[in-house]
Amino acid sequence: MKIALLDSGIGLLAATAAVHRLRPDADLVLSNDPDGMPWGPRTPEGITEHALACARAAAAHRPDALIVACNTASVHALEAIRAELEPGLPVVGTVPAIKPAAADGGPVAIWATPATTGSPYQRGLIRDFASGVAVTEVPCPGLADAVERADSAAIEAAVQAAAELTPADVRSVVLGCTHYELVAERIRAAVQPPSAPRVSLYGSAAAVAAQALRRAGAVPMPDAEPTGTLTVLHSGREAELEPVVLTYPEGRSLMAAAPAHP
């Protein structure tokens, strides 16, 4: 079995690690876009163009499913990617985990990029899945870029700035950007009041990984031998994992996967 994932940068690591945990025998294809990142400031048409290029590069390796492991690309490009690749290649998008967070009660904070915060897309999810729950949308300028660079000081500053905008009584935080899952515990520490119930964090990686297996017609086998290979594509070119990936446990967990050979 082979699962491909795409993102502009290393935001795909959380979903990749989740797939690897469920199926350590699965071959993985990571398709990102260092030549074109960041995607956030681009027009919707530009985002779609770059995400489609990453999807086509991944599809050339004949995966059994493709995960669009990026909230921004899922908002703007998922329809175009599905139109081109399905039904031959199942495509799974990434949606902020607003529904399960709201189901557990509130108050809820949604941390997201400034472009996503307040967008019709996010407001629609809140309307559909969090009616009657207190929800605060929290913009996190610079956080995804800081995570991409593994810049600890910049991560700390961005997390603290977002925490100051997060109500003190919040009990659930939705991580509305795939990059944020890589620093989830730093986020929890920033919003966790002393002597208060533990704040719950809601990411999308585990659900997306499980859905990709279902779409590929596979089942979880976490005890399988870790025989899966790893192919990395940088703007369509075969490459190696970037050193910054090893900053995060999700990236280090992939080192057991052997590089694929042509």
Automatic annotation (TrEMBL):
One Pfam family recorded for the sequence: Asp_Glu_race
GO MF annotation list: glutamate racemase activity
Alphabetic keyword roster: Isomerase
Family matches, as PROSITE patterns: ASP_GLU_RACEMASE_1
Gene3D superfamilies: 3.40.50.1860
Keyword Isomerase: yes
Organism: Streptomyces olivoverticillatus
Enzyme Commission identifier(s): 5.1.1.3
GO biological process: peptidoglycan biosynthetic process
Coiled-coil regions listed: none
The protein's name in its UniProt record: Glutamate racemase
Source taxon at top rank: Bacteria
